[in-house]
Amino acid sequence: MQYFFLLFLSFLTICQAEMINSSFESSFSGWTVTGDAYIAPDRTPTGGGDFADRWFSGGPKDGTRYACIGNRGNESSGTLKSPLWTATNQYLSFYHAGNSANNHFAAILNSSSVQLTYLYAQSYNDSVWRRWDFNLQSLGLKQGDSFYFFYQDGSSWSVVDYVYQWGNALPSVPENSSILFLGMGLLFLIRKFL
Fold first, then answer.
1. Is 79 exposed, middle or buried (0-12, 13-18, 19+ CB in 10 A)?
2. Burial degree of 114 (CB within 10 A; 0-12, 13-18, 19+)
3. CA atoms lying within 13 Å on the CB side of residue 63
4. Whole-model pTM?
5. How far apart are CA 96 and CA 66, in angstroms?
6. Spatial CA neighbour of 56 closest among 162, 152, 161
7. How large is the average pLDDT for residues 122-139?
8. What stretches of 11-129 adopt beta strand conformation (E)?
């Protein structure tokens, strides 16, 4: 009976939390935001501004809200940095639309905010959501590793929504405490049968 308890404890140490607020349904709760970012449709229009959601004629990709950068027309800029998320699957994807400038990029940062990789999210000045993918496994992330999603618009307008993980489960590496609990369970079994 004791070894079942030890195995259960080791399982609990491996389990991690899901991605939090990855579709902006709780506004920017948990996100670090700079510049001209806002949530559509939550903003209150002010006298004739050039807002990204006026140029973008689509709706949210997922849920009822999406992130926008662009409340000053093509002079807008800003960044979005997710809460610390836990890697579970091989791919991380997000949806993006914006003007045709080549100054939108997204990145994966490790838990120390060091950039692991980035991509330029090409836009076509239309209202079509396009999906962009990161391969977390090729970055060396294992199941349970922590990371950030980062997005920057450097002087244009853009919209972002539905950041999610999919694909095969990442390989896992047990934490030190998991190895300790499993080892204790095995020692108990060996001692019991010797």
1. middle
2. exposed
3. 18
4. 0.78
5. 10
6. 161
7. 90
8. 32-35, 37-40, 66-69, 78-81, 85-86, 89-98, 104-110, 115-120
d(C-alpha 153, C-alpha 133), whole Å = 18
Mean pLDDT score across all residues of the chain:
81
Nearest CA-CA partner of 91 in 117, 69, 68, 114 = 117
Q: How many residues does the chain have?
A: 194
Between 158 and 89, the higher pLDDT residue = 89
Burial zone of 108 (CB within 10 Å; 0-12 exposed, 13-18 middle, 19+ buried): buried
Q: Enter the tokens of residue 125.
A: 């000045």
Crossing angle between the packed helical segments 176-193 and 2-14, to the nearest 10 degrees: 160
Angstrom distance (rounded) from CA 149 to CA 136: 11
Inter-residue contact 160 to 151 (CB < 8 Å): yes
Please give the Cα distance from 81 to 58 (Å, whole number).
23
Locate 194 and state its tokens.
Answer: 């010797």
Instruction: Dig out the tokens for 173 from the structure.
Output: 């590496």
Highest mean pLDDT, choosing among 32-36, 165-169, 179-183? 165-169
Domains and CATH numbers, the chain: 22-173 (2.60.120.260)
Q: For residue 163, give every residue at least 6 positions away whose Cβ sits within 8 Å of its Cβ, in sequence order, or none.
A: 19, 22, 23, 82, 92, 93, 94, 149
Who wins on pLDDT, 102 or 28? Answer: 28
